[in-house]
Design a protein that fits this description.
Blueprint lengths: L9 H11 L7 H7 L9 H4 L12 H5 L15 E8 L2 E8 L4 H12 L7 E3 L19 E6 L3 H5 L4 H14 L8 H7 L23 E6 L4 E7 L4 E5 L4 E5 L5 E7 L2 E10 L7 E8 L3 H9 L6
Parallel strand pairs: 1-4
Antiparallel strand pairs: 1-2, 3-4, 5-6, 5-11, 6-7, 7-8, 9-10, 10-11
């Protein structure tokens, strides 16, 4: 090839390279810097040229900036209600959709406490139906939802040596004289069954009724009634003279024993202090409510 002559195709390749390399966007200030001028403060009418281009609609970065203020229970755009979930003497403040069902509430409780839905008893003015919404059962803001139940670990612990020792201690206790034969209780039981005593169902277990338990005697032989205020987490013990309002958490223990000769009724004691001397005794409690009373007051399952 002679000097000064270009190789065929070089112009074409150069044009191709120039076409494939897109020009880099240059704003006003960059253009001045490239021309060798000293950078200066842009005038107001020039400021717009230095702004980055607006993100087009649908751009992922723009979508990522949308608020994620949706409620943890999936309640975005739904009416929420403030609830106090009470389980095992612990309270949890929760916002929950008012149109969610009892079944969905159980799932929420599971996420908070670890308590499986199948092992939950959820109470608000009685047992909460799984197929009804909180709106339908008239749950209001600030309502207290009582939960009774035990975790899987609690259930497995039933078969531990510690539990076996407790069962042995209970068996030893059963060899002692029945409570109903002791003199302090005999003077009340000898009065006989109260005329207005509530009907009993031997061998059955029922939920607490919506009305107070009445028609029973206390240790002094006076009439007594028990009212369970689940919304206030209180037990009201009422007599003719006065009504004592006890927080459920202040009751240390609940014991009961069938009345000899009337096994469809129990005598029951609520431990209000650190020793047995603080027992408040109630006589002629219908047997079908005994376990429900223990569950409600102690806040845990009773193993039969």
């Amino acid at each position: 090839m002679r000097p000064g002559m270009e190789e065929p195709g070089m112009d074409t390749e150069a044009e191709t390279v120039a076409t494939e390399a897109p020009p880099r966007p240059v704003n006003c200030l960059e253009a001045e810097a490239a021309a060798g001028r000293r950078p200066r403060t842009p005038a107001p009418h020039e400021a717009a040229c230095s702004r980055p281009p607006a993100q087009p609609p649908g751009d992922p970065a723009a979508q990522a900036s949308v608020s994620n203020g949706e409620d943890a229970g999936g309640g975005a755009g739904r009416e929420l209600v403030d609830l106090k979930i009470i389980w095992n003497k612990t309270k949890h403040d929760v916002k929950f959709p008012l149109d969610s069902t009892g079944s969905e509430l159980k799932q929420k409780i599971h996420s908070i406490t670890g308590l499986p839905p199948a092992m939950q008893k959820v109470m608000y003015k009685g047992l909460v139906p799984e197929d009804k919404t909180l709106r339908e059962i008239k749950v209001t803001s600030g309502a207290k939802i009582m939960v009774v139940g035990s975790t899987i670990n609690d259930v497995l612990a039933v078969n531990t040596p510690k539990d076996a020792a407790q069962q042995d201690a209970k068996a030893e206790e059963n060899k002692k004289e029945p409570l109903c034969r002791q003199k302090q209780h005999r003077k009340v039981l000898d009065k006989g069954k109260p005329e207005d005593v509530m009907p009993s169902v031997k061998g059955a277990q029922e939920r607490l009724p919506t009305v107070p338990l009445s028609g029973m005697y206390n240790k002094s032989g006076g009439k007594v009634r028990l009212t369970f205020k689940l919304e206030q987490d209180q037990l009201w013990i009422g007599t003719k003279e006065r009504t004592e309002k006890l927080p459920m958490g202040s009751i240390k223990n609940v014991v009961s024993e069938p009345i000899e000769g009337h096994e469809d009724y129990h005598m029951m004691a609520f431990q209000l202090g650190p020793t047995e001397a603080s027992y408040y005794w109630v006589y002629w409690v219908p047997t079908q409510y005994v376990d429900a009373i223990k569950d409600t007051v102690l806040g845990k399952w009773q193993y039969f």
